[in-house]
Design goal:
The chain is of the alpha/beta class. The chain has one domain (2-327): TIM Barrel, CATH 3.20.20.70. The protein contains eleven helices and 14 strands. The strands form two sheets. A twelve-stranded mixed β-sheet has the order 9-10-11-8-7-6-5-4-3-12-13-14. Strands 1-2 form a two-stranded antiparallel sheet.
C-alpha cells in the first residue's frame, strides 16, 4: 500500500498527461502561455501505462484520474485509457478536461473504458468565458458536456471557480443550469497554483461566500462527513434532492486528514500533495531499466514522507514552483 506516517492510504492516482492547454485561464497562466515541457522529458504512452500498472497491481490504487494541462491534447489518450482498462484489477477511470475536445472524443473514450468526466466551466456567459479563458470556445464546452452525457460518461461533473468581479454572481445560475441538465456541480475555491503567483487570500471567493449565494435561491442540506468519505468536496442536497452540489474548499476548509491521493506529473515525478514543493523522480528509474519492484519501492518511500497537511494555513506558505497546469489537477 501507499501509506504515510499518519496512517493515510493513497488509493486515488492523478496522472497528468501533458502540461499543455488550449485555454489561457486568468487564474492559471499568463495570456502568452508558458514554456512547455520538452517532448523528450514527457513520459511516453508505454511509460504511463507501466506506472499505472505498477500502481494498480502492486500499490493498491483503485481509481485513476487523467489530468493535464488539457489531457485531450494527448494524441495517445484513447489508447492509454484502453490499456489501463485492461488491467487486473480494473481501476475506475475518469478524466478532468476543459471539454473543448469532448464532442469528438467522448464516444471513443467511453468505448475504450473511461467511466466518467469532470469538465471545467466557470460561467454560462460567453463574454465572461472569453474574458476568463482568453478564448472564444464557450459553445465547444457546452457541446462537449452534452456529448459526454450522451456517451454515458456519467455522472458528468462540472467544476467551477468563481472570481471576484467576473463571475462571482453566477453561483445560483450555474446550479440551476446543472440541475436542469443532470450534471453534478462542484465549486472550487481558487487555489495558489497560478503561474503568475498573483493569488491573494483576501481576494478569493470562499466556500462561505459560495454557500451564502446559493442559499438565496436554494435550500441546501449538508450530507455529512460519513457520506463524504475521502472525497475533496463537501456535498449538500439541493431542495430536498435528488440533486446535489459540492464545494471543494482547499483553502478555507482543508481536508488533508482524509487525503487518499498520489500524483504523477507528465514528466514522471511523484507528488504527495497538490501543494508540495518536493517531488520524487520515477522517470529516471524507468529509463535506467529499474524493475517494477524498484519503482514500487521508490513510490512507497515518497508517500511515506508525505506531510500532515498542505501548509496553506501557515503564514510562511510558499506556492509550489510548478503551476497547476504542470502539476495536474
Amino acid at each position: 500500500m501507499l501509506i504515510d506516517t499518519y496512517g493515510r492510504v493513497a488509493t486515488d492516482l492523478r496522472v497528468s498527461l501533458t502540461d499543455r492547454c488550449n485555454l489561457r485561464c486568468t487564474y492559471c497562466m499568463p495570456e502568452e502561455g508558458l514554456q512547455w515541457l520538452a517532448k523528450p522529458d514527457l513520459l511516453s504512452d508505454e511509460e504511463i501505462v507501466r506506472l499505472v500498472r505498477v500502481a494498480v497491481t502492486s500499490l493498491g490504487i483503485t481509481e485513476v484520474r487523467f489530468t493535464g494541462g488539457e489531457p485531450l491534447l494527448r494524441p495517445g489518450l484513447v489508447s492509454v485509457v484502453g490499456q489501463c482498462a485492461a488491467l487486473e484489477p480494473r481501476p475506475r477511470m475518469s478524466l478532468t478536461t476543459n471539454g473543448i475536445g469532448l464532442k469528438r472524443t467522448a464516444a471513443a473514450l467511453k468505448a475504450a473504458g473511461l467511466d466518467r468526466v469532470n469538465v471545467s466551466l466557470d460561467t454560462l456567459r460567453p463574454d465572461v468565458f472569453k474574458t476568463l479563458t482568453r478564448r472564444d470556445r464557450h459553445k465547444d464546452v457546452l457541446d462537449g458536456l452534452l456529448a459526454a452525457r450522451d456517451a454515458g460518461l456519467t455522472p458528468v461533473k462540472v467544476n467551477s471557480v468563481l472570481m471576484r468581479g467576473l463571475n462571482d454572481d453566477e453561483a445560483p445560475e450555474l446550479l440551476a443550469w446543472a440541475v436542469d441538465h443532470g450534471y453534478e456541480l462542484r465549486f472550487i475555491e481558487q487555489m495558489p497554483l497560478d503561474a503568475q503567483h498573483g493569488w491573494k487570500r483576501d481576494g478569493m471567493i470562499t466556500a462561505g461566500d459560495i454557500l451564502a449565494s446559493l442559499s438565496t435561491r436554494f435550500t441546501l442540506t449538508p450530507q455529512g462527513e460519513e457520506a463524504r468519505g475521502s472525497a475533496p468536496a463537501e456535498r449538500w442536497t439541493v431542495d430536498g434532492g435528488p440533486h446535489g452540489v459540492g464545494v471543494i474548499a482547499s483553502v478555507t476548509r482543508p481536508f488533508c486528514g482524509a487525503c487518499d491521493r498520489t500524483r504523477l506529473t507528465a514528466d514522471g515525478q511523484v507528488r504527495t500533495c497538490l501543494f508540495a514543493r518536493e517531488e520524487t523522480d520515477l522517470r529516471g528509474a524507468l529509463r535506467s531499466g529499474a524493475p517494477d519492484e524498484e519503482i514500487a519501492r521508490i513510490w512507497k518511500l515518497a508517500m511515506w514522507g508525505k506531510k500532515a497537511g498542505s501548509g496553506l494555513d501557515d503564514p510562511a506558505f510558499l506556492q509550489p514552483d510548478r503551476p497547476m497546469s504542470a502539476i495536474g489537477g
